[in-house]
Write a structure and sequence with these properties.
The structure is a homodimer.
Chain A: E1 3-10, H1 17-33, E2 38-41, H2 68-80, E3 83-93, E4 96-104, E5 110-115, H3 127-130, E6 145-147, E7 150-154, H4 163-171, E8 176-180, E9 184-185, H5 191-212, E10 216-219, E11 222-226, E12 238-242, E13 246-248, E14 254-257, E15 264-271, H6 272-281
Parallel strand pairs in A: 1-2, 2-3, 7-8, 8-10
Antiparallel strand pairs in A: 1-15, 3-4, 4-5, 6-7, 9-12, 10-13, 11-12, 13-14
Helix pairs in contact in A: 1-2, 4-5
Chain lengths: ~300, ~300
């Protein structure tokens, strides 16, 4: 069986974990009603994007895997007979936290996890404070996860800008790339800059589909979240998460795309056998110059 | 001086080398009139795309560097005080030929060459018969070429599908990527497939700009070229080269784009100092996981 329906749930970063988890669960039900056998949730789906500030109290949001959120999702996975890919603020040990995507199978079991490898740190996205990068050794790192609906190449947010990450997943046999993400506009940027940023974000991920001949799902959040540092009257400071979650096919063709300002559920059926036809037509993997790629392992090439 | 005007010349694959070189030269004059300090020519610009068949007689089209074409272009480079990037069917030795892009400086001197590293071979594009892949050793391979208008990351056609190639050029300090290319539609494909292919081609190259924070120029040919194998009455067999040469900025934003069916000259001014601003806003090079990229040097990851 190479045909499977995949869905994703885009919603707002609601203020309490219970409300946010409810939004995810309602979306899962909607996706299942549309036939989804796998549902992808947005990055850190159980609340607001807390990385707008560095605040030690936020470490209390981290949870173990398994933990309360995976327990709740495992119940739904069993009840609905689906696979769920959920982004969790993972507590691995005291003082050691990751931005992790966990995969729950149809029977409710946890069959794998991916710990975000590339960690951003920019004004409004202070992730290096919270998240230890995923381990780079051969047992971890960029490894796809085998499930009943295919081999999942799960990457998270900032990873989406790195062709290396997508390629490594494809080279390890991923049937599809999945990106939980949280990205938005700074309200002070002008419209032209906002348009360039959104277009760049979609374009670079569609290109991962093209270069590797596999579909891509990207699940982002929507809604304005205020900067916790904002002073009274500075209501403009914060991030306007731009939604636009999308699903693209193995030629990078845009299949469905969510609005920039509303909760949304997208579902699409894939035939992973079609990936191979696409790769036969444009056989990029055949001709890679691995003899000449050594300097990809350097920080910079001082020729 | 970080500001420079770059141009490109898109034309048909005219039937004699003299006619085709004239078309290139006329385009160069047009680009210079529009202010270009560098002009990029299309792949194998001195004639039809001869790789639609494997025919040993075509090796007579190869020429040395320097040779007649570079001599003619060197004169224009001197006269117009410009840099020219020209794609040549290079004869390196008897029985050893490359698909090469050569860089001619304002004084007419040849300051560097790039030999196509990834060589395709598909129905209608029998390039592995004609072109030895460029050497992968550290003295050759993916090395940008320093000129008076910036450090040029020149890649050729099939290379454009490989994020590895673009990244290696960026890591070696390229200010800009330049792709001479020859790609088109097969007339028997339906319009939806043609649209997907063209969109994929533009998207993947714009993504190289985005991932690396540098502009991209891509110079393709236009016009239908019949398959030399076509039998009488099979007038449909061949390649309809799709033009659509374009220039994109360092956020992948499309700046100018040529039509699919007409000769065209595009010129755009860049400020390479702006590349650094773009990279500071989205600092992808900072966070590459070179500790975990080792398997990029494998043909496939048999985990």
């Amino acid at each position: 069986m190479s045909k499977h329906s995949f869905g994703l749930v885009q919603h707002q970063g609601l203020s309490t974990p219970a409300e946010a988890l409810d939004a995810s669960i309602n979306g899962i039900h909607d996706a299942v009603a549309q036939g989804a056998e796998l549902v992808l949730l947005q990055e850190l789906h159980t609340g607001p994007y807390f990385c707008q500030q560095e605040n030690a109290e936020n470490f209390t949001l981290a949870e173990t895997i398994p933990g309360p959120t995976t327990d709740a999702l495992a119940k739904i996975a069993r009840d609905k007979n689906i696979v769920i890919v959920a982004s969790i603020f993972e507590k691995r040990a005291a003082g050691l936290y990751h931005n992790t995507a966990v995969v729950i199978e149809r029977d409710g079991s946890i069959v794998g996890r991916y710990r975000k490898m590339h960690i951003p740190d920019d004004p409004g996205y202070y992730e290096k404070y919270y998240f230890t990068p995923g381990d780079g050794d051969s047992a971890h790192g960029f490894r796809p996860i085998q499930t009943s609906v295919g081999k999942l190449g799960i990457l998270v947010c900032w990873d989406q800008w790195y062709p290396e990450a997508a390629r490594l997943m494809a080279l390890a046999g991923a049937d599809v790339l999945l990106y939980p993400t949280a990205i938005g506009w700074e309200p002070q940027d002008d419209q032209a800059e906002k348009d360039r940023q959104l277009d760049a974000w979609i374009t670079v991920q569609r290109a991962h589909a093209i270069a590797n001949g596999i579909p891509v799902l990207s699940c982002n959040r929507v809604g304005f979240e205020a900067d916790p540092h904002a002073t009274v009257g500075d209501s403009n400071a914060g991030v306007e998460f731009w939604g636009n979650s999308f699903i693209a096919g193995p030629q990078g063709e845009l299949l469905v795309r969510a609005p920039h300002d509303q909760a949304s559920v997208l579902v699409t059926e894939f035939d992973f056998a079609h990936n191979e036809k696409v790769r036969q037509a444009w056989p990029f993997l055949r001709d890679r110059r691995i003899d000449a790629y050594g300097d990809l392992l350097k920080r910079y090439r001082d020729l």
